[in-house]
Amino acid sequence: MTKFTITPWEVKGNIDYDKVIREFGVSKIDENLLKKLEKHTKKLHPFLKRNIFFAHRDLEFALQEHEKGNLFMYTGCGPSGPIHMGHYMVWSFTKWLQEALDVELWFQFTDDEKFLFKDMSYEEIQKWLYENMLDIIAIGFDPKKTHFLIDTKHASLLYPEAVKVAKKLTFSTVKGAFGFTNETNVGSIFYTAMQAAPCFLPSVIKGKKMACLIPHAIDQDPHFRVTRDVIPKLGFYKPASIQCRFLPGLGGISEDGKLSSSTGQAIYLTDDEKTVKNKINKYAFSGGQTTIEEHRKHGGNPDVDVSYQWLTFFEEDDKKLEKIYHDYKSGKLLSGELKMILIEKLNALLKDHQKKREKAKSMVDKYIYHG
């Protein structure tokens, strides 16, 4: 029996994604839907071809509305610490999708959520808010079509919409969806109404009913399940979503031999080259044999090797990835060599990102929504 926990605030255990699809009631992205998506995006992102973005809610409806020029996108960031590669992966896909569909993106920074759910001061969270905004700008979102909403700063815009959601939500509903108890603070109980507001805020601002598409990791689905039940009661479309798997933790493996998604040692977007090298060499679980001789003879197991698994997220070249897979499986490529391929890939990506991050310091105001 595979045991795992997925909530918006906790992910642990070995994730059985087929079981997640059944339990969450989301739909699998099949070949038919990929073809429809490709008509809109002109080509498919590697994350779609590799089943990294694997599930959805109402994606077909979102594409129909896109044809009418009636679609916007929404995503978010909870500022409580440095941005790691798991976050980057979702947002780099979001940037690609925004560009491919040529739509506006509303980016919510949930500083209130992190203050309510974490043992951190309000001031600490504001510091991370600024740092996180730099990383997100560096990813390359179009400033003309990207609007940052900060929950506490844009309260006058968000709160009137959030209370409309809150009025339709019972404590019983949020308790059931998120596992709240009598010890949960009242702010946490209300919070999901704030996360729901951007799903229809552009419709309110523009004075027309628009469709919303949310790219996110599967752990955020409970928020939007609740939102999808409530928003039609306010006269808006249910938000559509496209959902991804988790980037495996560097530690990778648990007793039953499956990839674990526990956080482990993360790689952050601000890590320098030496730090990345040390973390991968020290923590990345290897699917190789115990000796070089054994490895050459029996080969490695790329299906459980974290360096290979990470390359499925960050190496865009399908042929290169396939060669690495076969070379490792045959024993031609050693574990240390595979780690080195990943280290070089990540460091090249991060070097470029960090240059853009410096430039982002003068661009923050361009992204913040001013109405």
Question: What attributes characterize this protein structure?
Answer:
Rossmann fold; 371 residues; two-stranded antiparallel ribbon; globular; seven-stranded mixed beta sheet; 18 helices; alpha/beta; Tyrosyl-Transfer RNA Synthetase
Shape type: globular
Mean pLDDT: 93
N-end to C-end Cα span: 51 Å
Per the CATH scheme, the topology name of the largest domain is: Rossmann fold
CATH architecture of the largest domain: 3-Layer(aba) Sandwich
Low-confidence stretches: 254-264
Number of strands: 9
Q: Count of helical segments?
A: 18
Derived from helix and strand composition plus strand pairing, the structural class reads alpha/beta
In short:
This protein is of the alpha/beta class. It has helices at residues 17-24, 31-41, 46-49, 59-67, 85-101, 111-117, 122-138, 155-167, 171-178, 186-196, 201-206, 221-230, 273-283, 292-298, 306-314, 318-330, 335-360, 364-367, and strands spanning 4-7, 10-13, 27-28, 53-57, 71-77, 105-109, 146-150, 211-217, 240-244. It folds into 2 domains: 4-247, Rossmann fold (3-Layer(aba) Sandwich); 273-357, Tyrosyl-Transfer RNA Synthetase, CATH 1.10.240.10.
Explained architecture:
The chain is globular, with a radius of gyration of 21 Å. Helix 5 links the parallel strand 5 and strand 6. Helix 2 (31-41) runs parallel beside helix 4 and helix 13 packs antiparallel against helix 17. The protein has helices spanning 17-24, 31-41, 46-49, 59-67, 85-101, 111-117, 122-138, 155-167, 171-178, 186-196, 201-206, 221-230, 273-283, 292-298, 306-314, 318-330, 335-360, 364-367, and strands spanning 4-7, 10-13, 27-28, 53-57, 71-77, 105-109, 146-150, 211-217, 240-244. The chain starts with a strand and ends with a helix. The chain is built from 18 helices and nine strands. It folds into two domains: 4-247, Rossmann fold (3-Layer(aba) Sandwich); 273-357, Tyrosyl-Transfer RNA Synthetase. With 371 residues, it is of the alpha/beta class.
